[in-house]
Amino acid sequence: MSEIKKVVLAYSGGLDTSIIAKWLQDEYQCEVVTFTADIGQGEEVEPARAKAEAMGIKEIFIEDLREEFARDFVFPMFRANAIYEGEYLLGTSIARPLISKRLVEIARDVNADAISHGATGKGNDQVRFELSAYALMPDVKVIAPWREWDLNSREKLMAYAEEHNIAIENKKGKKSPYSMDANLLHISYEGGLLEDPWAEPEEPMWRWSVSPENAPNQPTYIELTYKQGDIDAINGQAMSPATVMAELNKIGGANGIGRDDLVENRFVGMKSRGCYETPAGTIMLKAHRAIESITLDREAAHLKDEMMPRYAKLVYNGFWFSPEREMLQAAIDKSQQVVNGVVRLKLYKGNVIVVGRKSETDSLFDESIATFEDDQGAYDQKDAEGFIKLNALRLRIAARKRQS
Known about the structure:
The chain is α/β, with parallel strands linked by helices. It is 40% helix and 19% strand. The chain is built from twelve helices and 14 strands. Helix 4 (96-109) packs across helix 5 and helix 7 crosses helix 8. The chain is elongated and about 80 Å long.
């Protein structure tokens, strides 16, 4: 501990990291530098400054990273149609590499001896933070208080906070609040009632969306314009990546879209139940697959689908800065050069329904060939006979062998 004179802490201003800031000061007798990232969590980040100042912290970094997060992390991931274990849209996973990137950059700038984070020893985030940090700063020292201290429950943390006069938001008597994480892509909920996978979430828990039952009785129609795989306009209005996501969260949440309740397999080996609200991501995934359906070659699309689970697993497990993820990204981005056009969606009571897709420049859909009406000789149906017989050849040979 005596070697650590200055630490940069990834600081949200919430319960865990506020306690960590004080704990680092007391246990390591070191100077603490805080870094708070605004990645669209929907709450003011400036209060974190007041909390840090109250603990005597002198160097405080608060940065708006919303556009970088959307442009350089979320949008590339959605070009891959990434989804983990068929359900999870990776909202927490994709935020960690960006936070880690800035954490080590600040550590270099202020000549810190170590970085610190508030991820628990049971979760995935400790892996994501540290793999990213080591990939960018191989000799960095990492302090993970959850792997060192004995404050191993939410109740102990709250008692520590009371003892040291650390303010706690969302406190309900002695009841611990949900563990929540939010950014432009999602908000997640864990702990409390949710630790019983049979228990239905309480309706007041949800923050970003109305329940599908209470969503409007009339559908909302929107049009998303794609340029090389990324949305760059909504209803014809050009928008930046972060603005696109904020708008889709608003529209989707109002229509009851994006709620999910799942049990996932953590990288560290356990199963974990969490609830998620991902309005923008739910809309983006559906729309992106729709525009790809008319612009991507069949085999390119199928190859992407084969690569996607590996890509999603890499993001989930914290390997964003790995060479294999970058290799996959290069192939995915190459495929997106032709993913241009417009998708029309109907949003209704929790459902995202594709009702139209078009591309003036890159559509591979040929109505003259696909039609059930007279195709004027564009497609010779007699050709199908030889195609079928060639593909059936090995099956017929095997069948004759069995019969003999």
